[in-house]
Structures are given as C-alpha cells and as structure tokens.
Amino acid sequence: MLPVTASASTAAATPTPEAGRAPVVIYTDGSCKGNPGPGGWGAWLATGEHSKELFGGEPQTTNQRMELTAAIRALAALTRPCTVVLYTDSLYVLKGITTWIAGWKRNGWLNSAKQPVKNAELWRALDEAAAPHQIDWRWVKGHSGDAGNERADALANQGAALANQGGAALANEGAATVSGPRAAP
Fold this sequence. Notes:
Blueprint: E1 4-8, E2 24-32, E3 37-47, E4 50-61, H1 63-76, E5 83-88, H2 91-106, H3 120-130, E6 134-139, H4 147-166, E7 174-178
Helix pairs in contact: 1-3
C-alpha cells in the first residue's frame, strides 16, 4: 500500500523550517458517534526521539469537522516552522487542503456549485495553521493496520467518549507528551 501524497504551497514571506532538522510526522483522525453526534479528534506527533499525543472532542459535531480539527490542532501545537509529513485517512481533508482550497479562496469561499463552502471557518483555520510549515500531505487507508493511524483513531475515539460523557464541559483537550526513545504507537 503506497500513500497518496500531495504538497501544499506556503507563502513566500513565511519563515522556512530549519535545515537539517528531522521532519515532524503527524497522524490525525476524527471520530463521530452518530453523524452528527458526539465526536472526537486525535493526533499523534513524532520527531526524532520525541512524540506527543493530542485529543479532544465536541458534544455535537460531524466526522468531517473532527477530521479538520485534528489537523488544525496538530499543526497549531508546533512552536516553530517545521517540515511536516501529515497523514490523514480523510480524502476530504487531503483534497480540500491540496486541491479545492485554492478555488474556494479565489471564488470567495463558494464551491463549484456557487454554494458556501461547508466548514469554511475550519478550512480557514487549517490554511492558517499550515502556512508556516512545509507540509507533505499524505493519505493513509483507515483501519488498515497502520500503527500511526490506529493510534490517532484511538485518540479520536477517546475524545469522542469524553465528549459523550462531558457534553459542553469538554473545553479542555487531553494531551500527553511522551519523551525518550520513539516507539511505534
């Protein structure tokens, strides 16, 4: 199985990632228990010997919103411009950020049917979060045994379970930092 790869361009005035640094590998996923319904997002970030897990959720959302939120939160967690390899099992996210977004911006955030783009506020947030980084966007088939995708899926399900239990009180996302030798998730 070869991943689908696509790159998104960054603005010329954006600071460039430091040469010689290992890329940050990110796996993201979204989950929804009912669509719409309680949902969660999860992200696993790794570089060198360090990794970080992020997750959260919302009491009433959709799977697509959680997929987008996972990518936004993962990129927002980076503290400086980085070279990133971001894996998603969502073709909606992959095609949206690498193909469709240029047309949406050119057309005033209207889709090809001249209707407002769904989740436009999240697409804008993802575009902004991606801007400082050089990102290689890759698709990975979900639930196919890829360790990073399986970990992101587990984190997203953890966020959805938390959202289902806590309802609107789920303002705080979970985060765990794992240091030391990087193991497969």
